[in-house]
Amino acid sequence: MPRLYLVAGLYVALCAQAFAADSPETAPTAEGVRAVEAHWTRAFLGGDEAYLAVLLDNDYVSVSAKGVARPKAAIIALAQKIAATHPAPVTLPPSNIVVHGNAAISTSSDATSLSVDFFHYENGTWHAWYSQHTAIPPG
Question: Shortest CA distance to 110 belongs to which of 89, 82, 134?
């Protein structure tokens, strides 16, 4: 019987890997980054610690528009706090994505801020490495 569980577990793992390989998020393209950004937003607002732990590089840092630098653990904790308050759905402004080799830069802006995210592609997956948010002065 334990052998059956081992075979079943291996089958499930291989199916999951095959499904992940077909995911738009695994494409080393601007479309792949765009899919990752959409999932990132859902994961952040939903407090999805597991997804954020994989997406965010271990050295990830996000600098807020007020100049506050937050490491990966603080961003995950913030996501869990936001998820607990049940925020309204958010629509992100369109982003401009440039991919060069295994690196990507995504920029977006709205009336109040400019955001830049840096990604690296490793082992078939995009990882966020750094984010910078800058307030746009009214005017």
Answer: 134
Do 57 and 120 form a contact (C-beta atoms < 8 A)? Answer: yes
Number of domains in the chain: 1
Domain containing 111 equals 25-135
Between CA 116 and CA 92 the distance in angstroms is 13
For 57-116, what is each residue's pLDDT tens digit? 999 999 999 999 999 999 999 999 999 987 777 777 889 999 999 999 999 998 889 999
Q: C-alpha 106: how far from its chain's center? A: 12
Record the pTM: 0.79
Q: Rounded to an integer, what distance in angstroms lies between the CA atom of residue 80 and that of residue 33?
A: 23
Nearest Cα residue to 61 out of 52, 70, 53: 70
Q: Evaluate whether residue 92 is within a structural domain.
A: yes
Q: Which of 129, 137, 136, 134 is nearest to 64 (CA)?
A: 134
